[in-house]
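The protein record quoted in full:

***
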Amino acid sequence: MERRRNILLEKADEFGERIVKMHKYLVSEKKEFIISKQVLRSGTSIGANLTESRNAQSTLDYLSKQNIALKEADETSYWLKKLYEGDYLNEKEFNSIHNDCEELIRMLVSSVKTLKAKIGRP
């Protein structure tokens, strides 16, 4: 069975690929192991939760997975800022990946708000 195209999931997958590459770079070139592992976990968790939401058992379960993805995106933004502040990412590198993260956050906020309105939740 073919699934509908999901632009949010596609963007999260692409972002996850960038996060994995960034993690490899940080570990091998910058010898940064702690924050890079945190950002690897949260940055790839966005796509994982969106993928999981495709098989949600209910609308509330779907909303829950979307909300978790949003929380992970927020956490990823935090860790990216710490990497930049710690001089592990230069301004160009940071702006590029952080802008993608912020785009995901905006999309997830919109998705969560729409779902909550649809089911009558505040």
